[in-house]
């Protein structure tokens, strides 16, 4: 029985190490062919749409070969793909992960980022509202500050 327990522990350790290796690989892709940013949307506020006129969201985009990125997207289970098709050129894809899922991904890959670590830190420091209805003027000011900071990086 003790041998079986050791086997289960080593198997769990191996799976955890493989997951960390996967996130380190994604960090390399983001550093090389990726984009980290904050998107600011301004919408005309309507009478029934309190404080919806301005919103901020986290964006992670990775560009590359479509089959490769689709495999990674399937493995991670988040994001959407845009495939750019041009005549007489290789098809390129852009994998986009947004909002809370992008933030969760950044939390996992941040320790492995080298070139875009400051952008990731800025994004992760930006406060998030639970919903657009919870956005206060102070929260929007902090988000705008993060947005302006990341634009300069």
Rounded to the nearest angstrom, the radius of gyration is 19 Å
Number of helices: 5
Beta-strand percent range: 15-25%
Fraction of helical residues = 40-55%
Please tell me what the overall shape is.
Answer: globular
Uncertain spans: none
What is the H/E order?
Answer: HEEHEEHHH
Number of strands: 4
What does this structure look like?
With 153 residues, this protein is α+β, with helices and mostly antiparallel strands. The protein contains 5 helices and 4 strands; from the N terminus they run αββαββααα. A 4-stranded antiparallel sheet has the order 1-2-4-3.
Summarize the structure.
Helix content is 52%, strand content 22%.
Protein topology:
Layout: H1 2-33, E1 34-42, E2 54-65, H2 66-76, E3 80-84, E4 92-98, H3 99-109, H4 117-125, H5 137-152
Antiparallel strand pairs: 1-2, 2-4, 3-4
Provide the descriptors you would attach to this structure in a database record.
single chain, 153 residues, alpha+beta, 22% strand, globular
């Amino acid at each position: 029985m003790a041998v079986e327990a050791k086997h289960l522990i080593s198997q769990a350790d191996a799976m955890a190490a493989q997951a960390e290796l996967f996130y380190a690989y994604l960090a390399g892709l983001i550093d090389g062919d990726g984009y980290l940013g904050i998107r600011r949307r301004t919408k005309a506020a309507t009478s029934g749409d309190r404080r919806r006129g301005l919103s901020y969201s986290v964006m992670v985009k990775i560009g590359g070969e479509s089959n490769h990125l689709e495999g990674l997207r399937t493995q991670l289970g988040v994001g959407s793909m845009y495939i750019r098709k041009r005549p007489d050129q290789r098809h390129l894809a852009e994998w986009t992960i947004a909002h809370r899922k992008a933030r969760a991904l950044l939390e996992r890959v941040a320790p492995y980022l080298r070139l875009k670590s400051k952008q990731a830190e800025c994004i992760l420091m930006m406060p998030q509202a639970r919903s657009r209805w919870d956005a206060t003027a102070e929260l929007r000011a902090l988000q705008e500050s993060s947005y302006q900071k990341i634009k300069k990086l």
